[in-house]
Amino acid sequence: MATYNKRGYKPKTKVEKEHNIEEGSTTAEVFNTLDETASKTEDFVAKNQKYIFIIIGLVAVVVLGSLGYKEFISQPKQTEAMNDMFQAQKYFDEAVTGAAAQKDSLYSLALNGGEGKFGMLDIIEEYSGTPSANLASYYAGTAYLRLKDYENAVAYLGDFKSNDEILAPLAKGNIGDAFVQLNQPEDALGYYEEAFKMRDNEYTTPMYLFKAGSIAMDLGESDKALGYFKRIKEDYSNSTEAAKVDVFIGKAQVLANK
């Protein structure tokens, strides 16, 4: 237990004297070490202050440059890209909702532009690195899919990166659709599985579970298909796919038991 010595207290025994000497010596060593460390630090700063200021200056330039790029280059470029993309997106929307006879021409206009306005391919090239160019890759890939140019569909959809609840799985699923048309069912199955695993929602998840199950049956993976169909029935009973899934569950069970 620690004891408190009154002011003016003098050690009486030899042990106490030795203890005080040791304590004083240790304290002195600590202060000497601190003094030496501080002195070395001062010497280092004095000798290298030119380089230290250069490093600080470079860090400041990088930070300010990043902020300046975002404020004066990146954001204005994105705004310009959005404006130039407007007409191409309008063509795409009209192709989705319009009459069948006009769809191909409208998808072509969405890709290549019209009325002196940029198409999606122009946006990708002119505004590379912007969110608009990324989104244009999705539109371009989907337009190529609808135009039955499946290799370009895979290429452009593969360039699209997103965490969006709907667009992210749709892009993967569209690649799966393209691989079905290219007669590459194993690749198609892989992308359908990616599509339903990456996001869980009432629209894309049952749709790609159903497509994955159908391809799995064609590939002889009946147990896997049965699991996908049952998940639709159990977890997405209100979906469009659930209305017809019982038939496919029956088919998968028959094939699995063979």
UniProtKB/TrEMBL annotation:
Keywords: Membrane, TPR repeat, Transmembrane, Transmembrane helix. The chain crosses the membrane at residues 51-69. The keyword Repeat does not apply. InterPro entries: TPR-like_helical_dom_sf, TPR_rpt. TPR repeats lie at residues 169-202. The keyword Membrane applies. This is Tetratricopeptide repeat protein.
